[in-house]
């Protein structure tokens, strides 16, 4: 096999069953639609947990400093992300990786770029105790909450127990996060039958997105989030990192990451696990070359970007939560220790 | 004059006209009521500016790092404060002073502890350009906003000009801040005629607050915020700082600070310009001894604290704003430069 054929073989390998199905129906363009699905509101949520979890999500007292909350890096004013290459943690530490959006994250097959958390509940405990992020301890975070009567009562109401534990904390945060969906994007309107929801350029971008193979990894309701793939298939990516191998221990999983959702991608810059690409044009160009072995023309690139911007859905709307105050028994924040 | 008389003379001096009036009516206890006033909603606001200012208040792109917004230190989930002794600024710098609450701040005679800003509009420009806080430059902040079409359009709609300037930015933020009032506290209900709004202990605390002289400085609708006073009248306060002298250049103004509002004081811990007192009991004890030469008994202290907690009003209720995204023309944040 020559180099070109090897590339193609590799692309085909990665694209897998979904891409194969997609390629089989390339003649019937509209059949690509079935590889996606509109974002749906969650079918069942526990509203008590949602309201409690919302407070916890915004409460910086889950950090040692009293300054960093979940919302600091998954800012719900900014697409559930911090719009920084890598996040800022306790004492302004520079994080090792880009903060993925929390929006629609319940749809992902696992959490974190390397998928080391099975679900949102498991994820929520990570940053609280990570010395480079919120730098706290689960036991201390629970002590803080337990000391605040309004929290103690709310946990008791919902979980039926006098003593709060970290499982309840992460369970409530995860329940709130389940509500962070963004339905009714123009792409979803299109999928649901409003055929004029996309402009001619956006439709051209959608066609390119499908036929050039982006869909191989970015499919399903979240246009991603449902598989791990190697970063740098055709050409290597600089600074690819360990990726999924940190979880599986398998050398084959090096440079592999959970495919990020493209939902609201207009809002969740910068892009990639290292946040190195600041614009959609740059991200599309790099993905085309490194993953598909294809250099998109300027026009093609612009059309794909136009399509990607149709993935911005309705952002979660809710009142800023008011947090119950600490008191004399509450462990005090230690921002400079 | 002996030492005791000197203390009393000094207290009387500081208490001034308001205290004199108060003392004159001490026999008619209820007459103290007229030294206060309920919090009123603003009589006139420009809703366009309010909505724009709300976005700006939550937008960390007004900082060099892209991580710190007005709401970082004046957190509207936490009484408009950060509940830290002194704030955390760019690169985790430790601030020199406690962040005052933004709630009801339009009622203050000036802004900042030393009153160096005449009003909210002037105040809003300070932290953006302060190297220890948001560490940005006004020109760059304006450039960021101008590059974002949705902001450019909103400024044009409201101010009628194609080019944004920093005056518009601070004007809109100030207009939003005017809405951050907290009406309908139980104390306000009491002032408005609901005589059973306060419990027996709270009323006893109110009586003590008046008759021991707290009212001399903490009066008016904001129970403070309307005069500068020396910290440490009867006894010196450790770490009193330059205070108002930094503005006036007068030696007599050393250790003087704007009297903080006691509205929502239950939420705005820790207390004093240095945030050294973490509990209301501690703050009341120190104020009694240093400002009034009076050691409150444990019961008196508890009654005053009970009264102070009746000053918690209805917190501002609004939807978390969604910020328009940056684009390829937007200056990128520089958190680690």
From TrEMBL, chains A, B:
The keyword Iron applies. It comes from Tepidimonas fonticaldi. Heme c 1 binds at residues 70, 73-74, 90. Pfam families: CCP_MauG (PF03150), Cytochrom_C (PF00034). The keyword Hydrolase does not apply. PANTHER family: CYTOCHROME C PEROXIDASE-RELATED (PTHR30600). InterPro entries: Cyt_c-like_dom, Cyt_c-like_dom_sf, Cytochrome_c_Peroxidase/MauG, Di-haem_cyt_c_peroxidsae, MauG/Cytc_peroxidase. Its cofactor is heme. This is Cytochrome C biogenesis protein CcsA. It comes from the Bacteria. It is found in: Periplasm. Residues 1-27 form the signal peptide. Binds 2 heme groups. Binds 2 heme groups per subunit. Heme c 2 binds at residues 214, 217-218, 287. Residues 48-156, 200-312 form the Cytochrome c domain. GO terms for cellular component: periplasmic space. One of its GO terms (molecular function) is heme binding. Keywords: Electron transport, Heme, Iron, Metal-binding, Oxidoreductase, Periplasm, Peroxidase, Signal, Transport.
